[in-house]
Write a structure and sequence with these properties.
There is one protein chain. The chain is mostly helical. The protein has one domain. The longest helix has 31 residues. α4 packs antiparallel against α11, α5 runs antiparallel to α6 and α8 packs antiparallel against α9.
């Protein structure tokens, strides 16, 4: 069991590292096609990248009755990535990453709402406390508080949390490559009317570097699915707090930007609060198992 959890943790760390590379790659790209156009290029290139696997296996793993679930997952991935790109450009990489620290707590809360996890009520108090810490820190960091940037970053965090809960729910019943293929395919189809209207396809060659990020996104999604196949949410979620470490290193190498002292303090406080919450969750589950 411990070995399986270790494998899940390794895949989660790879997922975080690759997502950081994708985020920084999108930050250095031009803004002329917008976040929806950028994500469409990522999804369509990811779909094409997976086509050889579909042909080689004669599509035998693509049989599913859960097309609606994949459509919902695709919509969440669009919402999560588009708002994340906007948050990066409006707030900056380190500031947006600080808000993303709420994703593990949001994941627990949403898992409880969807009857996937039983959680202690203190989780909701912890979420409010962490949001207050984030708002206070960002007000210290900026001369003018960017409310729009914070709002879309929060929307991104909620979208990714719900996306992860659904991924965990389907990780046992579907092949991980078929999950990736359907997610990219449906996301591409949903965004297709927008890209046709805004002539994004004509700019595809100009933004071929983003297509490479699509391949990385495929690997990123596969790592996430495999992580949840080998380990439960409450084990994996605390490792999401390494996101700021990865982002800080990448931001320094690319932009010579380092997180401020107040931001580091805020990230440590949120990490401590979250680890405490996950500890309560773990102890609560042990007590329930002992009484059964």
């Amino acid at each position: 069991m411990q070995n399986k959890f270790s494998i899940g943790i390794i895949f989660k760390l790879l997922n975080l590292l690759i997502f950081t590379i994708i985020s920084l790659g999108l930050l250095v790209r031009s803004k002329d096609i917008g976040p929806v156009g950028e994500f469409f290029i990522i999804c369509i290139s990811g779909t094409v990248f997976l086509l050889p696997w579909v042909v080689f296996t004669k599509a035998k793993y693509l049989k599913t009755k859960n097309y609606l679930g994949y459509m919902f997952r695709a919509l969440l991935s669009i919402a999560g990535m588009v708002t994340w790109i906007e948050a990066l450009k409006n707030l900056g990489s380190n500031e947006a990453t600080l808000i993303s620290y709420l994703i593990p707590l949001f994941t627990l809360a949403l898992a409880s709402f969807l009857k996937e996890e039983k959680i202690n009520k203190i989780v909701f108090l912890a979420i409010i406390l962490c949001i207050v810490i984030i708002f206070f820190t960002l007000r210290l960091e900026a001369l003018k508080f960017n409310f729009w940037g914070v709002l879309i970053a929060l929307c991104s965090a909620v979208s990714w949390a719900l996306y992860e809960v659904i991924c965990k729910k389907q990780s046992y019943s579907e092949h991980y490559l078929s999950q990736a293929f359907y997610t990219f395919l449906f996301a591409s189809l949903v965004m297709f009317p927008y890209v046709m209207k805004n002539e994004v396809l004509s700019k595809l060659i100009e933004h071929k570097e983003i297509a490479f990020l699509g391949i990385l996104r495929v690997i990123n999604v596969i790592c996430l699915f495999l992580a949840y196949k080998f380990a439960p949410i409450n084990i994996l979620a605390p490792f999401a707090y390494l996101r700021l470490v990865f982002m800080a290193i990448g931001s320094f190498l690319l932009f010579q930007v380092v997180p401020s002292f107040s931001m580091m303090v805020a990230s440590v406080l949120i990490t401590i609060i979250s680890i405490y919450i996950f500890r309560i969750q773990k102890l609560g589950k042990i007590r329930i198992e002992k009484t059964m």
